[in-house]
């Protein structure tokens, strides 16, 4: 049985369209206007128990809203969703027992309490036995070095320490599935590595994981499936390795040669490749499509022309691939494996989307390498709260 099953799941937010200031508020009172925003647009998504899924997309694509729909914090405008057989927004308490959630941008720890007290409160809320509780604390101490953080008041934790404590909170009750929304955001490299190690360990233990991130290094080694969402629609759902294979065919061989040779000599030897000279004398990069040439053939060919002193071969990171998808350079459509496979892409309609311009600007920000489009002022990027207040009150009233 599928653990998560969503069919045509849709969330449309309504935002009051009001001019600023008191005058704007008065006008809005007399004549109420709203702008609608389709944050999640008829997505189909299923997750098997034990799967680790990367859910990626540009700012404003609908990732956090999907997670909120799966947690029950937000009620869908259309479609169906079940997690472990439970409809999340109808039975939030029962759903909470089977899920763990981490929103990297906010904490679920009590701000003025020591971490130990927050965990004890969660223990009581989830009705965890003393033995299970102690076993979990021991485990978190081992993998997250939690012990040192237990007596510290949340507001005194650094961001990295807070994230480790939040991970412990999300997993304390051994949930069936854990949703991790940007678990490495703002962390330094050392703490990121630690969190990534922890994710890999969770994966190895068979925990079902849904991971959203802008840092695609987070998903390598943890997720074998990638779902790409853009403009509220799922535009790709398939294997991570397959995406890399199909859309990341470029290889780069960086060479340091010991014999005087020109880029033109190398280019003449490899007509199917692009040759770029490096800054230092004898340095060259040969780029090619791996379906046309192999790194082995390049090395053999170069060795016939010159002495090879050093070699490095680069594969594109998945981040480059996804960035190209966002930038519209690559047209990802489901391949034969997807069409027949376990994760068919969303059959969502391709109607004009009110978020189009917004998403286009987010795509541009992402494509330009902006790791966080908040810095680029993408609207709505900070407009995410983890509370029930997420649901637009006007929208609720209109139901
Ligand atoms: N409570 C809300 N009221 C109105 N619009 C909202 C609300 N929450 C989200 N949105 C809008 O829905 C769209 C999707 O937002 P969401 O937070 O799901 O995107 P995201 O992919 O998680 O983006 P990010 O990477 O920036 O976190 C955005 O345009 C956002 O402004």
UniProtKB/TrEMBL annotation:
It comes from the Bacteria. Pfam families: ABC_tran (PF00005). GO terms for molecular function: ATP binding; ATP hydrolysis activity. Residues 24-256 form the ABC transporter domain. Residues 336-363, 377-399 are annotated as: Disordered. Keywords: Antibiotic resistance, ATP-binding, Nucleotide-binding, Transport. The keyword NAD does not apply. GO terms for biological process: response to antibiotic. It is a peripheral membrane protein. It is found in: Cell membrane. PROSITE patterns: ABC_TRANSPORTER_1, ABC_TRANSPORTER_2. One of its GO terms (cellular component) is plasma membrane. This is ABC transporter ATP-binding protein. It comes from Sphaerisporangium rufum.
